[in-house]
Write a structure and sequence with these properties.
Layout lengths: L1 H20 L21 H8 L1 H4 L14 H6 L2 H10 L19 H12 L23 H11 L1 H4 L15 H5 L3 H10 L20 H12 L18
Length: 240
């Protein structure tokens, strides 16, 4: 009797041990367990969910500029990418993504995005040419900018910047209300290859734009901003 009881206990113990080593019936595999959003560390997934809607798949551009633009990646620093991704750009369509700034991403996810975007950079895209710096180092002059615009930009955007039969207005108040001066500067320097817009080296035949010309063009464009964009409020009202 004792031997039979011992045998039964031994078999039961072995069964319990075997169950502990394997997957219980109905228990999901690790692949089946949903990942908590803040634990995602895959760049492709983070970019697709947070960036591709505006900047295009694989950074090729959409409503916003192409982040994979080699000239853009040559002039922008990791610190700037990190700051803009985390904090957004106030007054524009670029929102903050860091949880600390009202977004949903943790710092580690911001780092994944920064390093992933940097990974799109190509070796030697400027072929030894030094572009103007990412940020302006001086105050632009709108009057000089008018002349620089006529030389470098008017052939595509029209003499007054209001567009042609193939391009829209870049002095429209609503457009200027949605972009910062830095957005304008970045576009002049890096271009918009996804839209056929040349970079600073190819706006003028035979030479590149200087840093001063870029700064002055941005100042001229910015001078067209309105206090109440898109709202044609009357300048005066007649009381009944």
């Amino acid at each position: 009797m004792k031997a039979r009881l011992f045998s039964l206990v031994s078999v039961t113990t072995l069964l319990l041990l075997n169950c502990g080593c394997g997957r219980l019936p109905g228990k999901p595999t690790p692949a089946e367990v949903p990942v908590v959003p803040k634990q995602v560390r895959n760049f492709a997934e983070l970019y697709r969910l947070n960036c591709a809607g505006c900047h295009g798949l694989e950074g090729k551009g959409n409503g916003a500029m192409a982040l994979a633009n080699p000239v853009y990646l040559a002039i922008v620093s990791d610190d700037t990418l990190r700051r803009v991704t985390a904090e957004g750009v106030p007054g524009t369509l670029m929102p903050p993504f860091a949880a600390s700034a009202g977004g949903e991403l943790v710092d580690a996810q911001i780092e994944v995005l920064v390093h992933g975007i940097r990974g799109w950079a190509k070796a030697g895209p400027l072929q030894g040419v030094t572009p103007p710096p990412y940020a302006a180092t001086a105050t632009g002059d709108a009057e000089r900018g008018r002349s620089a615009f006529a030389t470098a930009c008017a052939s595509c955007h029209g003499a007054d910047g209001k567009g042609t039969t193939t391009t829209g207005s870049i002095v429209d108040g609503s457009f200027l209300a949605l972009v910062s001066d830095q957005d304008l500067r970045t576009t002049v320097i890096a271009g918009r290859p996804d839209l056929g817009h040349p970079d600073w080296q190819h706006c003028v035949s035979g030479r590149a734009l200087t840093d001063s010309e870029v700064t002055d063009v941005v100042a001229w464009l910015a001078s067209h901003r309105l206090l109440t964009p898109g709202q044609p409020y009357p300048t005066s009202q007649t009381k009944p």
